[in-house]
Structures are given as structure tokens and as C-alpha cells.
Amino acid sequence: MLTGLSNDMQDIDDTRKTVVINNELLRQSVDIAALQETRLADSGTLKEKDYTFFWKGKQSDEPREHGVGFAVKNSLLSTVEPDGEGSERLLILRLNTTTGPITLVSVYAPTLTSPPETKDLFYEKLSSVIRNIPDKEQLILLGDFNARVGADNDSWPSCLALDAIECLPTMDELDVEPTLEELSKGIDNLTSGKAPGNDGIPPDLLKQCKSSLLSPLHK
In the predicted model, is pLDDT for residue 108 greater than 60? Predict the structure, then answer.
């Protein structure tokens, strides 16, 4: 164990960053976490004080990029079965629970700008993993799918299924100013004992002084 770890993550050896992650997961009361961009070579396991880390990356003679893994609380180790297969973008962890087995998949998907063959290979492997899981077993996908959202919907129309979303009719009456009667009913329906809103006026005061405030409020 190393002592006196730097506060700068860049100064910490890759394998010792697990100490920092261990402490943060414990502080957040996390049982199992999926990890991405681990950038550790090959596959391996490292046991810290509270968590055990499993990872899968590229070969040691390849660039240190991508990489996926899991951090599992040590108290749960007897219930997990790590899958020795996988890749630097997919890692499987089987969790045996009292209600049945659960398959966890740590995912790190290629970005939109990645070569088509890279994206195709990733999603083919992911589809294969999903198909091989029995229908009665639970599947949980975790990680970074590098998804994008925005106004440029025309770039990937087949992915958004916008036509499947029912469009509700426009309610023009909502733009009409409330009548004096509607405002009066609204004040009557205010919940007593609540804190003032943005206007700083307590609801109880509005109710008690409704007769004198109603007309100025309506204007």
C-alpha cells in the first residue's frame, strides 16, 4: 500500500487510483460500480480495503486506451462470477442473488465519429452478449454509450422514433388570462401554512386579504 497519495490524479500510478475510487465509492455507499476508460492493459483483479476491482483492456503492447471494469464491494465477492472473456469495451459480471442470477455488463461504446467497422463490431458483440442471456434472467447494462442529443434530429431519424410519439393537441385556452372568478378560486385552493413563493407573499395572507388584493392581482 502506498501512503501520502497526491491530490492530483495525474500524479498517481494507474493501479493506485483504485485507492481513491475505493474511498469515494465507500463514501457514496455504492455496492457495485461499472468503470470506463480504465486504460489498464490486459485483464486483472485488484483487491483494496473495501472493494475489489476487475478490468479488461487492450494488450500490453497496444495503446493504453478505452478499457472497462467493475468495482465490487468485498462483502459481495462470494456472489459474483467475473467473465474471463470480453474486450476493452465490454465486460460481463454475473451476480447470484436470492431472486436469481443477474448479468451486469460494463459498456464503453465507440463515439459517433469512430470508424463504421469499429461501431459495427462493438454492437455485434453487444447483441451477441444479450442474445446469450436466458430470457428469465435479469440483464443490466451499465456504462457509457457515448449517446448524443440535440436539435439535429435529421442526422439519425431511424434512431429517435419521433413519429412514434403521440402529439397532443395545443390548448389555446391556456394562453387566455384567468378571469376574476378563476383567480378567486385559485386563492381559495392555496394550501395554508406554506412558505411564501417568489413574490414573498404567504398564502395565508392572500386568503385573509383576498377581498382587497383580488382586483390589484388581477390587473
Answer: yes
